[in-house]
Amino acid sequence: MALRVGLVGMRGIGNTHAQAHTQDPLSNLVAVCDVVEERADAAAEKYGVPAYYSLTDMLRNEDLDIVDVTTGGYENGSWHFDPAMEAMEAGKHVLVEKPISNDVGEARQMVAKAAEKDLYLGCNLNHYFTPPADKAKEYMAKGQIGELVYCLHKMGFPGGETTYNHDKSPRSHGFPYFHVKAFLSHPFSIMRYFCGDVTHVQAFFDKPSFRKASGDAMLSINSIHMRFQNGAMGYLLSQRGDATFGLGGWWSVEVAGTRGTFCIENCIEKVTFWPSPGTEDAAQPENLVLGASPAPVVTESGIKDFGQTFPLRIHAFLEDVTNGVAKDKLRASGRDALASLEYTWAAMQSYEQGGILVRPHPLPTTHGDPRELA
Prior knowledge:
Strand 1, helix 1 and strand 2 form a beta-alpha-beta unit. The protein starts with a strand and ends with a helix. It has an 8-stranded mixed sheet with strand order 8-9-10-7-11-12-13-14. It has a 6-stranded parallel sheet with strand order 3-2-1-4-5-6, sandwiched between helices. It has 374 residues and is α/β, with parallel strands linked by helices. Helices cover 33% and strands 22% of the residues. Helix 1 crosses helix 10, helix 4 runs parallel beside helix 5 and helix 8 (185-195) packs across helix 11. It has helices at residues 12-22, 37-47, 55-61, 81-89, 104-117, 131-141, 178-183, 185-195, 209-214, 309-323, 334-352, 370-373, and strands at 3-8, 27-33, 51-52, 66-69, 93-96, 121-123, 148-157, 198-206, 221-228, 233-240, 251-257, 260-265, 270-275, 297-300.
């Protein structure tokens, strides 16, 4: 039976989620909610469901399984905490947009509330719900990457000084960490997805002269070095339309190990694999000239539309809830989103103290499901 879903926040991202729910056999979108009545009414007419102007009213009048929170707010996350907490207090599972919050203290409370109520709390960390990410995980599972050595991630919008436009919208204007909080959830979550927990962070932030001349507070260029618990090294470079990345496009992640390396480009488009010399199906070292790499294997997804990541991720949440997976096995969980925010806070602390090495705040302990550990 399809899960009954109520959506909170009906701007652009809310409608993206709504479209995914209406097309997914595991979902039954039954209500929409927005404090701006015109938006709620327009969405209700579009999707053929009742409109609500407060979450309290929607929870009182609708029998919901899931509340999907797609509100925004300052730094794209200040309106996530209240509706998510109200929904969980009412006993509803929650899917929330990223970042889980623009405040790490609130995010910790959200994860604690889900654990207290024994509910699913998921976050729309949609960048690794893709065929290239699945293929990369397959390489890892088959031992074709080996012991992890490094992870390099670049993510940022193409741009430069001629395309710059000072964004003075209330959600971002005057917030130096807008890009850091609103954007870095994705790259941090990708790096952790492939390489595990991060134990050390060092960061340097800045902005180009054209932002400084415009009085733009945003720290739009982020250079972050990290160490993973397994000993691998990581580097994240992010920017917000200050330059145009070369190889790999607007989004690329390269993960290398002792047996091979993969690189995903533009999130959903393709993954390339380079086997290390001497491994299976790779050229033997004696047949390679100095510095040459074995021939790569390129797997194209056939998908160019980044928007396809939304229905893929939303379906995974619906699937996990439907199947009743153990809470600590939920894909892109609230705890996973909290990890990204803890790393973000560590990076901000490092920057504010001149690039010192910072250890992120520990994540809440996972206790496991006795049915699985029996």
